[in-house]
Structure formats: structure tokens, C-alpha cells
Amino acid sequence: MSFPGSGLAKGLAVTLRTMTKRSVTAQYPDVQPDLAPRTRGVIGLFEENCTVCMLCARECPDWCIYIDSHKETVPPAAPGGRERSRNVLDRFAIDFALCMYCGICIEVCPFDALFWSPEFEYAETDIRELTHERDKLREWMWTVPEPPALDPAAEEPKELTAARKTADKLAAQQAAEAEARNAPRPDGTENPGEAT
Ligand code: SF4
Ligand code: SF4
């Protein structure tokens, strides 16, 4: 049940509360904003990781990723082997006038070639300048923040586990070889070991 004039009183109370609050106006550009670590500002391309699989361009809902490439034949690594072909990137561009910053391209890239950078100061007076070509996308790469440290209780990434296992195996193999070289011969004479 409401009393006559209670709506007006509530409205005035809200106005009073707002009037007495401190102003939160951001003084940009004099004061740079304190951005969240995962801010979606612009996309950086680490093209060494890009295999031109086209997944990002196909999945982009705005069709604003432009990729051109050609195929190159790679000679066989060993005699008698087969020639291989690989894709070579000719053009990689993102039109930020169309991009809606959904992040799908970054999510779907299977080779970690795309990253969010918090940089946002790239407004242009000419809309065509908002299509960033590969050189510009690479420059954004250097503004990508380091990933946050792993939670100490988190499971070790499988890539690290595999690399550690390989390193341990190699070290054990080298130790066994060194031991075999230095072990005494069956006739009791000393093993000369590895020639120096
Ligand atoms: S963030 Fe979304 S819209 Fe922008 S390029 Fe990537 S997939 Fe396309
Ligand atoms: S999904 Fe990744 S690897 Fe594939 S074309 Fe796009 S950036 Fe390159």
C-alpha cells in the first residue's frame, strides 16, 4: 500500500543521494584509465604462429578478417622423402570499423596467433584507416600484457608435463651412456672413456 506523495518522496530521496555523492567523471585524456587486465582494446597478430588455417576468418560473425595466402613447396627433409606444401601468408588484416570485439577469432585460433591488447587509442578520421594490416597488427602484439601467473594449485599444462618428461628421459639416457663409458672393462682394465 502506498501513501499519496510517497513516490515523490522516493524520487527526491534518490535525487538527494545522487547530489551528495562524489563525482566519478573520468578525466581522460589527462588521466589514463585504469583498465582491467583482460580489456578488449585491439587485436594483435603473432604471425609466426599463424598457419593460414582460415578458421578465424570463417568464424568471424562480421566477416572483417581478410586473409590472402599462397602455397609453397618445401623440399623433402631427407633424401627419398616426399615434398610438402605449406601456406604462406600474404595479407592479414582486420577491419576494426566492422569488428564487434566479440573475441571469437581469438578463441578459435588453434595456434595462439591472435591476442587481445588493451590499447584503445586508435580512432581515425578516415574510416579506411581502421583496417589494420599485418604490420600494424604485429605492432599491437608488443602491447599485449603478460598472461597472469598460474594458480599454484592448478594442474600443470600438458605441454610442460610432456616437455619435462622428454627432458628427464634425455638426461637419464645421457647419464646411462656416460656411466657405460666410464665403467671398468670385464678384464679389469680401466675404460679409457670418451676421447678428449
Ligand atoms: S573480435 Fe569478433 S568481430 Fe572482431 S575480428 Fe574477431 S571474430 Fe571478428
Ligand atoms: S585461426 Fe589463427 S592460425 Fe588460423 S588463420 Fe586465423 S590467426 Fe592464423
From TrEMBL:
Pfam families per the UniProt record, alphabetical: Fer4
Gene3D superfamilies: 3.30.70.3270
Binding site for [4Fe-4S] cluster 2: 60, 99, 102, 105
Disordered: annotated segments: 147-196
The EC number(s) this enzyme carries: 7.1.1.-
Domain 4Fe-4S ferredoxin-type: 41-70, 90-119
Residues given in the record as [4Fe-4S] cluster 1 binding sites: 50, 53, 56, 109
Protein keywords: 4Fe-4S, Cell membrane, Iron, Iron-sulfur, Membrane, Metal-binding, NAD, Quinone, Repeat, Translocase, Ubiquinone
Protein topology in the membrane: Peripheral membrane protein
Family membership noted in the UniProt record: Belongs to the complex I 23 kDa subunit family.
Subunit structure: NDH-1 is composed of 14 different subunits. Subunits NuoA, H, J, K, L, M, N constitute the membrane sector of the complex.
Role this protein plays: NDH-1 shuttles electrons from NADH, via FMN and iron-sulfur (Fe-S) centers, to quinones in the respiratory chain. The immediate electron acceptor for the enzyme in this species is believed to be ubiquinone. Couples the redox reaction to proton translocation (for every two electrons transferred, four hydrogen ions are translocated across the cytoplasmic membrane), and thus conserves the redox energy in a proton gradient.
Protein name per the record: NADH-quinone oxidoreductase subunit I
Organism of this sequence: Streptomyces kronopolitis
